[in-house]
Specification:
The protein has 14 helices and ten strands. It is an alpha/beta fold. It is elongated and about 85 Å long. 35% of the residues are buried. Keywords: Transferase. This is CoA-transferase family III. Belongs to the CoA-transferase III family.
Length: 394
């Protein structure tokens, strides 16, 4: 696999950091997640579902012996993923200078830091989530919603696209640069800037206005539901169809096929044709015509009708349906893109193995680091580590 032999240490965090680690693990990197320890009477709980292909070591970094374990891990690592607010790892004794400074312990380390608000900015020490980062990026204000307020697309744009994926992209660039220079470096990612970058197309159009592309209020532009030929429509008996026939030749295929398929009981005084697509005065009437038309038949009817055509009309699938429509799909998404020289698409992961128990590989990893059975037992007794079975096996 493309990243085979690459050693990654991921400090346990929320979605963006684990997603960056997942991308690396899915492509062959050896990813070790550092989890916290719990008291002997506590129950280690981890809800991170982005754990595929990773291993977990549970370490108490408040003890010197715990910090020594982490330092030994990082001395041998290629990549560190820091998901915390600015300064947290520095206070723990694992700041960039420890590894990349003049007397650094690992000058080849790629030190990847991912935060929500930009470092050095006025919000850098504040708590936040995807919706907050999206708000400061300027992108949220452009997303159509209901009642005049912006809507938001789950936590996809800032957390995962602008956060985890951008961080992984920076790591890959730094690894390539290390091949050339032999040196590691710090990769800084923040979700506000990342959300802006993945939204370059609408933001640039907004800054330099062109024909009806993000120049009108949200919900009034061609690509945000303002155009009747780029929207989602309800069908008979529930279900929806997506329509995206922007280009005139595609709209012509859609409207011609659509008109012919309407039942005889569907009667409208006005029947739109291909040449009326960009007649803005007729858009309200065109939208109502398409809306009523889709309601005349089921989603399955329209999906079958437009299948194999250039009408740009396909069914809106639920997650379980989407996992069945392509033989390469599954309930758990597989990594993409596919590289022709490497196998990088694991088959469906059983549900029970999605979540990685905290400390599942503690003893295994410590053994790899050179700790013997007695040392591991002592670390467990002094509560520097947790093992999956509660105590180390000698």
């Amino acid at each position: 696999m493309a990243l085979a032999g690459t050693r990654v240490v991921e400090f346990a965090g929320l979605a963006p950091g684990p997603f960056a680690g997942l991308i690396l693990a899915d492509n062959g990197a050896s990813v070790i997640r550092i989890d916290r320890t719990v008291s002997p009477h506590g129950k280690p709980v981890n809800n991170d579902i982005l754990s595929r292909g990773k291993r977990s070591i549970s370490v108490n970094t408040k003890t010197q012996s715990g910090r020594n374990i982490v330092l030994r891990l990082l001395e041998q690592a290629d990549v560190l993923i820091d998901p915390y607010r600015p300064g947290v790892l520095e206070k723990m004794g694992f700041g960039p200078d420890v590894f990349l400074g003049e007397r650094g312990l690992n000058k080849r380390l790629i030190y990847a830091r991912i935060v929500g608000f930009p470092r050095g900015g006025p919000h850098q020490h504040m708590a936040g989530h995807d919706i907050n980062y999206l708000a400061l990026s300027g992108v949220l204000s452009m997303l159509p919603g209901k009642g005049g307020k912006p809507g938001f697309p789950l936590n996809l744009l800032a957390d995962f696209a602008g956060g985890g994926m951008m961080c992984a992209n920076g790591i890959l660039m730094a690894l390539l640069d290390r091949v050339r220079t032999g040196h590691g470096q710090v990769v800084d990612a923040d979700m506000v800037s990342g959300a802006r970058y993945v939204s370059s197309f609408p933001l640039i159009h907004k800054a330099f206005p062109t024909e009806r592309i993000f120049t009108s209020p949200p919900g009034k532009n061609i690509l945000d539901g303002g155009a009747p030929f780029y929207d989602v429509y309800e069908c008979a008996e529930g279900g929806h169809m997506s329509l995206g026939c922007l280009e005139p030749q595609f709209f012509a295929v859609f409207i011609t096929t659509f008109n012919r398929a309407l039942p005889k009981s569907f009667k409208e005084e006005w029947v739109p044709g291909p040449h009326e697509q960009f007649d803005l005065e007729k858009w309200p009437r065109l939208r109502e015509y398409i809306r009523k038309g889709f309601l005349s038949q089921t989603r399955e009817f329209w999906s079958d009708l437009f299948h194999g055509t250039d009408a740009c009309a396909v069914a809106v699938l639920h997650p379980d349906e989407a996992s069945q429509f392509d033989r390469d799909f599954s309930l758990v998404p597989s990594p993409t893109p596919i590289l022709s020289r490497f196998k990088s698409r694991p088959r469906e992961t059983p549900t029970q193995s999605i979540v990685l128990p905290m400390g599942e590989h503690t003893e295994e990893i410590l053994t790899e680091l050179g700790y013997d059975g007695w040392q591991i037992s002592e670390l467990a007794i002094e509560e520097t580590i947790n093992t999956l079975h509660g105590r180390a096996k000698l």
